[in-house]
Amino acid sequence: MRVLIPAGLAALAALPFLAPSHITYLAAVIASTSIIVAGLNVVTGLAGQISIAQASFAALGAYGTAQLASLAGLPHWIGLPAVSVATALVGYLFGLLSLRVADHYLALATMALCAIVQLLLIHLEDWTGGAVGLPVPPLEIGGATLTRPAQLYAVIMPCAVLTAWLLHALMRSRTGRAFAALRLSEVATPILKNRPEPVPEEEVARLLQPEDLAAMAVFVATLPAHVCLSEMLTTPTHMRGLAAGARKIAAMP
After folding, report:
1. pTM, rounded to two decimals
2. Are residues 96 and 25 located together in one domain of the fold?
3. pLDDT digits over 152-166, tens only?
């Protein structure tokens, strides 16, 4: 891994000098898309929560940045961070409203947000341009316009690499481990007390307890060296039927 990462970074740095322009442009598009997908990876891949609203937040950021550049004349270097903070605030407020729902109800709530944003973007034609969209002013640095694929690549790819590094750091942090604890089932952590509608004590008692996860970690750590544990599924006892069904579905060809 210590060799692969520097080699990969070196390959990314050399790509715009060695590859044709259309390949460089395609790599820049993939890198920009990976930044959007990174947020979905945290919500769905790490925390195991189903969200269909990721495209809505990307749309709010894109249209907001384009409007600040077109109407207010703000360069993208100022408009993009400002709109990112505003979009994050929208996501935080939506998250507060979604604390009362879980599982497929959370997916339906995010689907509703996606539908609302899509309808607004289509019908507010004076602000969004409707189905046609908006012309976006090009990136500029010191009066130089960045329109060539190699120039766009030089801006987007470092941002994508930084996003991947931040995602990796989050997964290894205490917050990332707390997200991962929600993937299969909720754990009886103090954060449950912060919900607008407190979770009843009898429901908390049915959840996985922190000491349960600690005992599982000790069990894995004390396994003999010749044992390879490829997967472990841990759920509360009352969810054993659901867990068995999930295993059967996963085993289907």
Report:
1. 0.66
2. yes
3. 899 889 999 999 999
